[in-house]
């Protein structure tokens, strides 16, 4: 039979387990937009002949002009974005470790921040492992 004390201990144990495995993804629409724009940027920088400019609507002529006149700039922007996301992924791994999140979830945080950058990192920054009452809290 569960007593009120044993029930509160069990709830506290589950909350601690959930906080160690905490992972939260960005909104799926935001994830799709970020992936689309990342792939488009890579295509514009490295394979501009494969980009369907006519399918991009009013952005097509703008992107064609950028590719024709500023291809080195597009490549630099791509490498800068990859570098920033790599740094963000490393920071997310370290931050997750300092927040008490265990290894499988820590790796997921690193991967999400590597792919989605600060849009994923903001959830980890807002996560507090325990509040003053001992329960998991998201600010």
Give a description of the structure.
The chain has 139 residues and is mainly alpha-helical. Helices cover 71% and strands 3% of the residues. Strand 1 (127-128) and strand 2 form a beta hairpin.
Provide a quick synopsis of the model.
The chain has 139 residues and is an all-alpha fold. The chain has helices spanning 4-20, 28-46, 59-69, 71-98, 103-116, 118-126; strands spanning 127-128, 137-138. Helices cover 71% and strands 3% of the residues.
List keywords for this structure.
elongated; two-stranded antiparallel ribbon; 139 residues; mainly alpha; 2 strands
Q: Report the principal-axis shape.
A: elongated
Which blocks of ≥5 consecutive residues have pLDDT under 50? 131-135
**Helical percentage:** over 70%
Radius of gyration: 21 Å
Category from helices, strands and their pairing? mainly alpha
Span between N and C termini?
36 Å
Mean pLDDT: 84
- Count of the domains: 1
Mind sketching the topology for me?
Blueprint: H1 4-20, H2 28-46, H3 59-69, H4 71-98, H5 103-116, H6 118-126, E1 127-128, E2 137-138
Antiparallel strand pairs: 1-2
Helix pairs in contact: 2-4, 4-5, 4-6, 5-6
